[in-house]
Structures are given as C-alpha cells and as structure tokens.
Specification:
alpha+beta, 17 strands, 17-stranded antiparallel sheet
C-alpha cells in the first residue's frame, strides 16, 4: 500500500512539473513572439503578386507569342503597365523570346531600383500544351512559371528574399489584361496560382518552403484596376489557405485568408487596402491575426480616404493578454 502511495505521489509531482514547464514554454513563446512569420508571409505574397502582375502584363500584349500569335523579337524590353501608371519609367526587365516558338519566354530582371525594391534573376513562362494550340487568352490555359534565382532586395535596409521553384497560373475565365483594361470586352478576369515547394531564401541565409494556393479576380471599378485575392488551398482539414509550408525556423505553418485581400493600382500591389489572414505556426498556442490597411498606430484606415494605408498590423493573444506589431508596406 505504501509503495502504491509513493508511486502515486511521484506521478502527480511529475505531472505537475511537466505542466509547469509546458506553461512556462507557452508563456515564453507568447512573450518572445515578434510577428516575423507574418512579415515573411507578407514579403513572399507581395513579391509573388509583383511577379504575377508582370506575367499578366506581358501575356496581355497581342505582340506576345504566348497570348495567341506566333511572332516576337528576341531581347525586346518590357514595361509593366502598373509601373507606368504609377509613374515608374525605368525598364524593370528585358524579355527574351528566343524560345517563343516552343511557347516559352523569359523575363530577365535588370536590377533597377524602384519603389524601394531591386530585382534580379529571371522568371521563365511556358504555356502548357503550346504545341497543341493552347494560348494564354483561352479559358483553362495553364502557364508554368519558373523562378530562377529571382531575388528582390529592399534598398532601405538591404534585406532580401529569393524565390526558386515553379508554380502554375491557370486562366479561369479566359481573356487577359488586354480585354479587361484596354478593349473593355470583359468585366473581370480570374486566374488561380498554385505550386508546391517554392523555396524562399531570406537575406541569403535561412530558407522556407511555401505551397501557394490563391485565386485572383481582377476588375476595373471606376476605371481603377482592382485585384481581390482569396485562399483556395487546404491542409490537415483547414481550408481557404493562401499558402502553407515550413517557416525559416523549420516550423510548419498555415496562412488562412479570413477576409479577401484587395489591392488596386492607385496604391500598388504591395499595399492592400483590405483583407485579413490568420497565420498558425506549429506548437504555438496562439495565432497571428493580420489586418491589412492600417495607419501607423495600427488603426484601420478610414474607408474612402484619399491617401493610401501605411501598412498592416499583426496581433496575437494568449489567455487575457494581447500583443501587436505594426509594419509599414515599404
């Protein structure tokens, strides 16, 4: 009887010690949280959006062989429509069309610095089943996008991210930015972006893995190009994921879009004017709740404001405590 009593006492003490250690770890994790996972996620999505915009720009030109014709000169220069409207005149990339007869072109980035960003490397675009007559303006056309040491460096502090890997862009509605923006023959354009194991290297050191699953719907209300982004992926029973994978620290994560993310060409793709996401990192008892379009104090920007929002806010809560951090878009 005494032996059983001693064993029970030891087990209770061990359980109490385990719970105490676990509680301390959770409290420490909450206290040490700095929102870095949310900042990394925003950086990846921002640069992915910038690349997709360049893709849409080039594929929306009748001179582009991938749009629906078979001609094109090697080494021509490309000027992004959105860049032009924002008053950016430097050429961000040069187009290599030497593989156009096989349905492939390449955007080679020139390293010019605009909007606090310097881009180098290349993005290769290939129409799937090009030889069978597939062209970008057709509904259901699939474009393979290969990131080849595509690196973006922030001029203000030298921080960078580099993308390597592949993803597919599917034209869900048919048409292109040509029909949407210039010919005005369609009211909206929808595309989906999917891809597994996109390798993202931060500041030339730590690497994360992203599985991208997003849908973009482009409209032109009041003559302003507007993009609405949704999460279409799922993992472990969780839906509406814009991406999931492994953070730079080796932890599994998910990013769920709880309110569609919206940007327009007035403020740029890097500065969403609406949207919310919920980021969960493995083994953390709290989620990182991200709210886009806030001022420097973290308060939501007033709807209809003539100025663009300062940035976005991330909050995390544990028990009765809540911490937050505000990030600027640029």
């Amino acid at each position: 009887m005494k032996t059983k009593t001693i064993l029970s006492t030891v087990m209770i003490a061990a359980l109490a010690l385990t719970l105490g250690v676990t509680g301390c770890k959770k409290k420490k994790a909450f206290k040490n949280e700095d929102g870095q996972s949310s900042a990394d996620n925003r950086s990846v999505q921002t640069e992915n959006d910038a690349a997709v915009n360049d893709v849409n720009t080039e594929l929306g030109k009748t001179s582009c062989p991938l749009y629906g014709r078979t001609t094109g000169a090697s080494g021509t220069q490309g000027t992004n429509v959105l860049y032009s409207i924002l008053g950016i005149t430097s050429v961000p990339y040069v187009i290599d069309t030497t593989g156009a007869y096989q349905g492939t072109i390449k955007l080679n980035y020139t390293g010019v610095t605009e909007s606090n960003r310097t881009r180098t490397g290349s993005i290769r675009l290939t129409i799937v089943n090009y030889a069978q007559g597939k062209r970008w303006k057709q509904q259901g056309c699939v474009l393979k996008v290969d990131y080849l040491n595509y690196k973006v460096t922030r001029a203000s502090d030298g921080k960078s991210i580099e993308l390597n890997g592949s993803q597919n862009i599917t034209n869900e509605t048919g048409g292109s930015w040509l029909e949407l923006l210039w010919l005005k023959t369609q009211a909206s354009l929808a595309t989906s972006v999917t891809g597994n194991d996109l390798q993202v290297t931060f500041d030339g050191d730590k690497t994360a893995t992203y599985n991208i699953n997003r849908k973009f719907t482009y409209t032109v209300p009041g003559g302003i190009l507007t993009c609405t982004g949704e999460g279409i992926g799922s993992s472990d029973g969780l839906g509406q994921l814009e991406n999931y994978g492994v953070t730079r620290d080796g932890d599994a994560f998910t990013s769920q879009v709880t309110t569609p993310i919206v940007w327009n060409w007035t403020c740029g793709w890097w500065a969403p004017v609406a949207g919310e996401v919920n980021i969960k990192v493995e083994d953390k008892e709290f989620a990182l709740k991200v709210l886009f379009s806030v001022n420097k104090d973290g308060d939501p920007e007033t709807a209809g404001s003539n100025s663009c929002p300062y940035g976005w806010k991330v909050e995390w809560s544990h028990k009765k405590k809540t911490n937050k951090k505000v990030f600027g878009y640029l």
